[in-house]
Design brief:
Order of helices and strands of chain B: HEEEEEEEHEEEEH
Number of helices of chain A: 3
Radius of gyration of chain B: 17 Å
Structural class of chain A: alpha+beta
Distance between the termini of chain B: 59 Å
Shape of chain A: elongated
Protein name (chain A): Mitochondrial inner membrane protease subunit 1-like isoform X2
Helix content of chain A: 10-25%
Subunit structure (chain A): Heterodimer of 2 subunits, IMMPL1 and IMMPL2.
Family (chain A): Belongs to the peptidase S26 family. IMP1 subfamily.
Strand content of chain B: 25-35%
Shape of chain B: globular
Main location (chain A): mitochondrion
CATH class of chain A: Mainly Beta
CATH architecture of chain A: Ribbon
Distance between the termini of chain A: 60 Å
CATH topology of chain B: Umud Fragment, subunit A
Number of helices of chain B: 3
Oligomer: heterodimer
Largest sheet of chain B: 8 strands, antiparallel
CATH class of chain B: Mainly Beta
Number of strands of chain A: 7
Strand order of the largest sheet of chain A: 1-2-7-3-4-5-6
Number of strands of chain B: 11
Structural class of chain B: alpha+beta
Radius of gyration of chain A: 19 Å
InterPro entries (chain A): LexA/Signal_pep-like_sf, Mito_IMP1_subunit, Pept_S26A_signal_pept_1, Peptidase_S26
CATH superfamily of chain B: Umud Fragment, subunit A
CATH topology of chain A: Umud Fragment, subunit A
CATH superfamily of chain A: Umud Fragment, subunit A
Chain lengths: 154, 182
């Protein structure tokens, strides 16, 4: 009797687990952020919703905050803002020694906290294929809830 | 409706965490995949097991998002890993030392391939999975080996990625024929 109940519970857990996994994998998920490279827009401990639909349609624009696999460590995820997209001319005053234009299939990422951020200024343009999602909005802390359209001037 | 949702979720989990079959297009991996004398396209098994750990080895045949076009998937062999120095075939530099978190990929068909010889070393994060077997047509069912041109790759003594003692894991019809020729 208890065994049958156990099997039914296991089945239900597997079912919901599969649905949650697929939602997180293909639709979107909640992420807790670490670090200071996106301050003051996003601080360590902030909770955001990341959606995975835009990147599948290459629907990323300048100004979007994205979740991305680090080009120098595939097991690390970083959160940065897309400041330039493919074809854009790199700022001549930029300190980076890289090429004049953002190459096809790449984006230029920068953390809002320019001094404390390791980003495209360090490792160059990032291939689009490393992007894992777009940050839709911040849900916590509640007093700073909202879309991250522009850099916060706090 | 509920059954469709659950069925879809199960398929989704298998597709993203276990693997899926994939049709090979083009001849950049000839003769390993889609050999010239084959009438039919090969289908391979793309394994996602361990894909989140990115612990790939030299010689692995992998699927990656093209750095030139994110809508395109490429299937190439990993020739060199971070820290290695590779002698290139058609690249602007004769030799390249692979940066941190990157690797060098090439098609087995040296001259018909859009690979690292064109776009340079790629971030490992672009790799989606590993092709382990050819699963169709039935006459070509085999495990894919991990052989790579060792003579072109210099592995530093302090490398984080020590090659396994047996680079040719498992046998395949192809590698037996190649050994016989030599």
């Amino acid at each position: 009797m208890a065994f049958r109940r156990g099997v039914r519970l296991a089945g239900r857990l597997l079912k919901y687990g599969a649905i949650i996994h697929c939602t997180a994998e293909f639709v979107g998920h909640i992420t807790v952020c670490h670090g200071s490279s996106m301050e003051p827009t996003i601080k360590g401990g902030d909770v955001v919703i990341v959606e995975k639909i835009s990147i599948n349609f290459q629907n990323i624009e300048r100004g979007d905050v994205v979740l991305c696999r680090s080009p120098v460590d595939p097991r690390t995820l970083v959160m940065k803002r897309v400041t330039l997209i493919e074809g854009d001319v790199l700022d001549k005053t930029s300190t980076s020694p890289f090429l004049a234009k953002v190459p096809t299939g790449h984006v230029w990422l920068e953390g809002d906290n320019t001094e404390q951020s390791k980003d495209s200024n360090d490792y160059g343009p990032v291939p689009y294929g490393l992007l894992q999602g777009k940050v839709l909005l911040k849900v916590f802390p509640i007093n700073r809830f909202g879309l991250l359209k522009d850099k916060c001037l706090d | 409706m509920n059954k469709v949702l659950v069925g879809g979720a199960v398929v989704g989990v298998i597709y993203s965490a276990v693997g899926f079959p994939s049709k090979i297009r083009g001849r950049s991996m000839t003769p390993t995949l889609n050999p010239d004398d084959s009438k039919y396209s090969d289908y391979i098994w793309m394994s996602k097991l361990g894909s989140q750990q990115f612990k790939y080895q030299r010689g692995n045949v992998v699927c990656l998002v093209s750095p030139k076009d994110p809508k395109e998937r490429l299937i190439k062999r990993i020739i060199a890993l971070e820290g290695d120095t590779v002698k290139t075939l058609a690249y602007k530099n004769r030799q390249v030392t692979i940066p941190e978190g990157h690797c060098w990929v090439e098609g087995d068909s040296k001259y018909r391939s859009c690979d690292s010889n064109i776009f340079g070393a790629i971030s490992m994060g672009l790799i989606q999975g590993r092709a382990t077997h050819i699963i169709w047509p039935p006459s070509r069912i085999q495990r894919l080996d991990n052989r790579y041109p060792e003579e072109r790759v210099q592995i530093p003594p302090d490398s984080k990625h020590i090659p396994t003692s047996n680079p040719s894991l498992g046998t395949s019809k192809h590698s037996i024929l190649a050994n016989e020729k030599e």
